[in-house]
Automatic annotation (TrEMBL):
Name the UniProt record assigns to this protein: tRNA threonylcarbamoyl adenosine modification protein YeaZ
SUPFAM superfamilies for this protein: Actin-like ATPase domain (SSF53067)
GO biological process, one term: tRNA threonylcarbamoyladenosine modification
GO cellular component, one term: cytosol
InterPro entries in the record: ATPase_NBD, Gcp-like_dom, T6A_TsaB
Domain of life: Bacteria
A Pfam family of this chain: TsaD
Length: 217
């Protein structure tokens, strides 16, 4: 097994290689505006660090969000393209699940990432491997009673200490955590879902109202 894992659902552009035993190379850079520019060099960097070629990859793991439309699309389209070119399976893993796995907390807790517009993408977890709720997008004040008193991880939790007073790192997901989680689930015989994006809301960019299409005469 050689899994190539990547995630662009948060400001972190993160890539890792997992050989079936553990992560053998990884790269993470935080830049919310350069996902498309940074992802392919990061993939090349981890392959070079591991001394491997892309055609050695036997499977791809992609973070499915939730996340902003543009950033999330970069990672998922890259994963699908590589999977098609290499003829290998492409697996999807919820980005929030990767953060939960990296947090390695034993009791109930919350994962929250920054959804912009003064909102967070979030879910509750029983432990680092067990999600209790479907990913959702809400204003922190609207979910305060549901998360009251629980530890929380992620950039969204750190941004809103009034709602998440017990917030701490990790701030962003790492592809290393995604790779370890995916490898663990695959080894247990679990079938991972297809890499379909969790957008949860419409893109920020919208067609203006009263837009008129101009056609040549």
């Amino acid at each position: 097994m050689l899994l190539l894992a990547l995630d662009t659902a948060t400001p972190a552009v993160t890539v890792a290689l997992h050989d079936g035993d553990d992560v053998i190379a990884s790269s993470s850079q935080v830049d919310a505006r350069r996902h498309g520019e940074l992802l392919l060099p990061a993939i090349d960097r981890v392959l070079t660090e591991a001394g491997l070629r892309l055609d050695a990859v036997t499977g791809i793991v992609a973070g499915t969000g939730p996340g902003p439309y543009t950033g999330l699309r970069v990672g998922l389209m890259t994963a699908d393209t590589f999977g098609l070119a290499l003829g290998v399976p492409v697996h999807g893993v919820c980005t929030l699940d990767g953060l939960a796995y990296a947090a390695d907390l034993r009791g109930p807790f919350v994962v929250a990432t920054d959804a912009r517009r003064k909102e967070v993408y979030w879910a509750r977890y029983a432990d680092s491997r067990t999600r209790l709720t479907e990913p959702a997008v809400d204003r922190p004040a609207d979910i305060a009673e549901r998360v009251e008193g629980l530890p929380a991880v992620g950039a969204g939790a750190l941004l809103y200490p009034d709602t998440f007073p017990r917030a701490h790192e990790p701030e962003y997901v790492s592809a290393a955590a995604l790779a370890r989680l995916a490898a663990e689930r695959l080894a247990a015989g679990e079938e991972l879902p297809a890499p379909r994006p969790l957008y949860l809301r419409r893109p920020d960019a919208q067609v203006p109202k009263n837009y008129k299409v101009v056609t040549p005469k």
